[in-house]
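Problem 3 from the worked examples.
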Amino acid sequence: MTRPIVGIIGNRFLVNDTYQVTGTGSLNVRAIVDATDAVPLIISTDENVYDLEELMRICDGFLFTGARANVHPSEYGHDVTEAHGDFDQARDALSLSLIRALTQRGQPYLGVCRGFQEVAVAFGCTLHPEIRDIDGRDNHRMPPDGTLEEKFALRHEVTLTPNGPFARVFGADRVMTNSLHGQGILDSSDQIVIDGYAPDGTPEAIYVKGAKGFTLSVQWHPEWRAAEDTVSKPLFAAFGKAVADWHMSKLRQPALAV
């Protein structure tokens, strides 16, 4: 029997400032392989490459990853400032439309960091370009120096809604996570449920209200040691189960007549 396929939304960047490529971090690939038992497929965000229906037929689930580039503020009605940093509007165009289509269909996806922000924006939230500039908020950005272990080290607690979907996945109302983001949700919306907060009040865990499928998304980076971390492992396992269930439901559908 074939394994499920998880599409990993790629990021565009330049090699030597001249050659454009689409790729993703190896941590994202290994998280899918090691913690969901699915086949990872990197999805290019080049314009006009995919039809959404075709893409959703090929893949059983999707991982919306973190990225250096931020969601363009025009997507949530704000003006561009220097604090917003770099953008990848081709990814915006694919991801936001795909997230809405997947949610409507009930097809599973997991949002991570920028992916968390994409899910939020897709359903009406606004973002703040620098959470650390808001009174009472902490600096959630990645430490500028140190090893990968130091950059992805656990930084703060996340408090979850008791008996909410995240608490049920983790088997706890409080978990420790890493923190490597500058932006964050500013204004939420009726369609997004904030299910977990950092100690300073920054939203860290969300899902789409009334969604038929798996829409859990986190502001931290669970792909780090996804197969062994006590928080990352159950999150990817829950996502993997949702993806496997979707895959099996496709196999049970009658074949189309030729």
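Problem 4, a separate protein:
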Amino acid sequence: MEIFHEILNVVVEAAILLFEYIGVSIIILSGICGVIQYIRKDPFTRLKLAKGMAMGLEFKLGSEILRTVVVREFSEILIVGSIILLRAALTFLIHWEIKGEEEVAEKKEEAKK
């Protein structure tokens, strides 16, 4: 039975690292694209940047949820739970910003017509 526990730990740790790297990569690429779009004066820069950040944070949140599988002590559960709450709050705020930016973009498109 101990071998199954070790296999689970290895798989979960690998998945956590994979999700962390994917999330960080998406955030970095979104930031670089955001700078390029800002220089080009793209009116949808904020919207595109917010969507990229939200996607990156979703992967980071997924890694934290996986981290709860391997937590051993109550203090670790509190720390991981706090991180999950913080990232969930950030994701919520970014999605709220996206919704606002999409409404502004729709109004701009309607005004052009």
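Solution to problem 4. The CA atoms of residues 24 and 56 lie 6 Å apart. The two ends are 67 Å apart (CA to CA).
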